[in-house]
Amino acid sequence: MVCSMKKTLIWIGLLSFFVILTAVPVFAQQAGTSSGQPRQSALDKSLQFKEKVATKSLELKGNIEERKQKFQENLKNFKDEKKRRLVERLHQRMGTVNKKATDILLKRLERLEAILGKIESRAQKKEANGAQVIVVYTEIEAVNENIADLKDKIVEQADKVYDFDISDEQNVRSQAQPAVLLIKTDLKSLRDELVSIRKEMVDLVQMLAGIRVAVEQATGSANIKE
Are the C-beta atoms of 192 and 27 separated by less than 8 Å? Predict the structure, then answer.
């Protein structure tokens, strides 16, 4: 009786882990309204990305459904009904957590991409007023590449199915633990990359703010002479 209760508490602990995992920290704030129009290139990239996601999802949908069906069939062989329900809930929870986390990551990444477009618009205005912003453009392209790379990784993560071996009913708990740890590690890696991109953009804003246009430089010189 005591052993059975301990096993139940362990399963509850695994399920509770996912409740904590869904509390994704907020990495980026929405940018303020601006009169500038979004870059056409950014819009094109966004449309291409959405088409890519739709195509890839269709390609993998059949494989995912097949794996889920096989998992459910193996689950029917469980003699312990309570354990069967706990395993089923854990497996479903893993899929829910992964989808929710990747959806949030994509939205925040798209928000950063929109902000990057506004940063480029500001750089273009400074360039029109005589400022040298070549270095800024180089950094913008680097950040754009990092965003595109992370988008691909998030799409791949969204399509992952975290299965674990349930052929051995007695040891299924220990067999599930690696999958639980793996999804935690995978999502943390993506979040860390998002934080890194956000830091790059903060540095980019500071770099742009430090570049003075010709009018500002002339005004500053006049003030010094006075």
Answer: no
Q: What is the tens place of the pLDDT at every residue in 15-25? A: 554 444 444 44
Question: Per-residue DSSP letters for 61-92?
Answer: HHHHHHHHHHHHHHHTT-S-HHHHHHHHHHHH
What is the distance, to the nearest Å, from the Cα of residue 83 to the centroid of all Cα atoms in its chain?
33
Domain that holds residue 217: 2-19+38-225
Supply the pTM of this predicted model: 0.68
CA 5 to chain centre: 37
181: left (phi over 0), alpha (psi -120 to 50) or beta: alpha
Query: 137 is written with which tokens?
Result: 């453009």
Number of domains in the chain: 1
Q: Which residue's entry shows tokens 């854990």?
A: 90
Please indicate, yes or no, if residue 173 is contained in any of the structural domains: yes
